[in-house]
């Protein structure tokens, strides 16, 4: 059998997800020309075209679709075999970089403590990632795993443990008339600008954190777009708008010029552990188990 080139297979798998040569190159840290070169080499080995490319779109050929259906599970199985062999040979060792948004809550710190106790040969590094870019550090391998606000629907990212389901609260300036209410309903969001997130976060994620309309269909005024929690809280205190936060985050941000009022009628906020399929390791899987055990 002709020798297989793993880099060609990896390139094809990423291209099949992105359907874009430029983005494929960015994920693989190679040039767009190198992506084309790897694809052509793979197609020569197979003896047929796997991808059709025009000036407007990139798509898989029928042969490419069939090849992808067989390759994807085989590649995952091969990756698991290699990871399991490393684990058996060395145990869970090295370093695990854990990203989190905002603040690491008690469940996360408990999971880190459990992971370190179970795997003393693996050091952990805790990295705060931008609220406005929950998935970028995972894609770039700046962190190995990340605890992020849901939802997540990103090509190549794996959603592991889901936890910390909490009622949402509204951060509002203490002098605002609504701040004296014991609770608010979701329809009350139409009464004031809602601060959201700018930056590279995908649109569906930004809309989940700052919905453009109430469940009843009333439009919610768009407030400023911020890149960090502290920036948002500063604008709230200045009366520039209100901001939706989960209850644990609100509890950790106690300050006299802001009130945190529970909101009924909205989906609960949830956190999830994510990692990149291409960067999955025994360490990331072990931490996912620790987080599941800590969140139980």
UniProtKB/TrEMBL annotation:
Record-level Gene Ontology MF annotations: DNA binding; DNA-binding transcription factor activity
Superkingdom classification of source: Bacteria
InterPro entries in the record: LysR_HTH_N, LysR_subst-bd, WH-like_DNA-bd_sf, WH_DNA-bd_sf
Cellular-component GO terms for this entry: protein-DNA complex
UniProt KW keywords: DNA-binding, Transcription, Transcription regulation
Family: Belongs to the LysR transcriptional regulatory family.
Name listed for the protein in its UniProt record: Transcriptional regulator
């Amino acid at each position: 059998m002709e020798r297989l080139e793993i880099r060609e297979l990896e390139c094809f798998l990423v291209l099949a997800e992105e359907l874009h040569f430029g983005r494929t190159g960015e994920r693989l840290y190679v040039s767009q020309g190198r992506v084309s070169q790897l694809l052509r080499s793979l197609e020569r080995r197979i003896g047929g075209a796997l991808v059709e490319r025009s000036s407007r779109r990139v798509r898989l050929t029928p042969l490419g679709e069939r090849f992808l259906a067989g390759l994807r599970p085989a590649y995952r199985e091969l990756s698991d075999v290699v990871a399991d062999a490393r684990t058996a040979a060395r145990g869970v060792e090295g370093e695990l970089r854990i990203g989190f948004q905002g603040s690491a809550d008690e469940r996360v710190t408990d999971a880190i403590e459990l992971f370190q106790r179970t795997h003393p040969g693996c050091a952990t590094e805790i990295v705060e990632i931008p609220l406005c870019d929950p998935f970028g550090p995972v894609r770039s391998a700046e962190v190995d795993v990340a605890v992020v606000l849901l939802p997540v629907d990103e090509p190549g990212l794996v959603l592991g443990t889901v936890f910390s389901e909490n009622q949402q609260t509204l951060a509002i300036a203490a002098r605002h008339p609504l701040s004296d209410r014991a609770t608010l309903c979701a329809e009350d969001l139409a009464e004031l600008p809602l601060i959201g997130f700018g930056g590279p976060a995908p649109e569906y994620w930004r809309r989940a954190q700052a919905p453009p309309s109430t469940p009843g269909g009333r439009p919610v005024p768009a407030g400023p777009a911020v890149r960090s929690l502290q920036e948002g809280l500063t604008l709230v205190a200045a009366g520039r708008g209100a901001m939706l936060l989960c209850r644990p985050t609100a509890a950790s941000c106690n300050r006299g010029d802001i009130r945190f009022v529970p909101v009924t009628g909205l989906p609960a906020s949830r956190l999830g552990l994510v990692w990149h399929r291409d960067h999955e390791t025994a360490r990331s899987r072990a931490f996912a188990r620790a987080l599941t055990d800590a969140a139980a």
